[in-house]
């Protein structure tokens, strides 16, 4: 089982946003109901104190949790879900590196052309646009939770050039990194 490197806070943010990008990579278990869900589940959100996260469906079930009837986390909806999950886990774990399509396709053992076509069919994204989203997610998290400069964060999350970082960030967040930080900084009045 591939383990992704996300903090509790980052996983919490994904479930609050009902982010489908992380479905299958971790599961949200609610201690009070003994139910587990996908990150994208639309059910009422539990209190943070009652949540624990699992990276493996076997682990969460062994811990005594049962699957949510609404999001059905135990059901794989496509024969390609394993390959797509491996690609997404690889992207989440290696987002800081300079990644080419051939690096990703070598990791999962299929041709670059086949990978790109299949990934787009399953996620409506290319591996590159998915990687951009992961990097911008990380940058947004760092902008609101650290004092790193925009430039430091740009390189920290794997962008090779500040201009590309600003362009992609603005496209995905509808604002600049500086605007995002001032709008979302923890502890400041909204």
TrEMBL record:
One BP annotation, GO: DNA repair
Gene Ontology MF term list: DNA-binding transcription factor activity; methyltransferase activity; sequence-specific DNA binding; zinc ion binding
InterPro entries: Ada-like_dom_sf, Ada_DNA_repair_Zn-bd, Homeodomain-like_sf, HTH_AraC, Me-P-triester_DNA_alkyl-Trfase
The keyword Methyltransferase belongs to this UniProt entry's keyword annotation: yes
Residue ranges of domain HTH araC/xylS-type in the record: 85-183
Keyword DNA damage recorded: no
Record's protein name: AraC family transcriptional regulator, regulatory protein of adaptative response / methylphosphotriester-DNA alkyltransferase methyltransferase
Organism: Paenibacillus uliginis N3/975
Species classification: Bacteria, Bacillati, Bacillota, Bacilli, Bacillales
């Amino acid at each position: 089982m591939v383990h992704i490197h996300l903090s509790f806070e980052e996983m919490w943010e994904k479930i609050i946003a009902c982010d489908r990008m992380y479905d299958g990579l971790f599961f949200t278990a609610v201690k009070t109901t003994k139910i587990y869900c996908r990150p994208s589940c639309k059910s009422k959100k539990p209190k943070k104190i009652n949540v624990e996260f699992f990276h493996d469906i076997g682990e969460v079930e062994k811990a005594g949790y049962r699957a949510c009837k609404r999001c059905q986390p135990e059901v794989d909806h496509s024969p390609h879900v394993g390959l797509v999950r491996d690609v997404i886990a690889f992207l989440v774990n290696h987002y800081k590196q300079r990644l080419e399509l051939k690096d990703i396709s070598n990791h999962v053992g299929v041709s670059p052309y086949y990978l790109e076509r299949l990934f787009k069919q399953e996620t409506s994204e290319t591996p590159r646009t998915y990687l951009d989203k992961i990097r911008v997610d990380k940058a947004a998290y760092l902008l609101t939770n650290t004092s790193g400069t925009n430039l430091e964060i740009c390189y920290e999350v794997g962008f090779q050039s500040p201009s590309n970082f600003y362009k992609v960030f603005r496209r995905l967040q509808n604002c600049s990194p500086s605007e995002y930080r001032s709008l979302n900084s923890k502890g400041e009045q909204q």
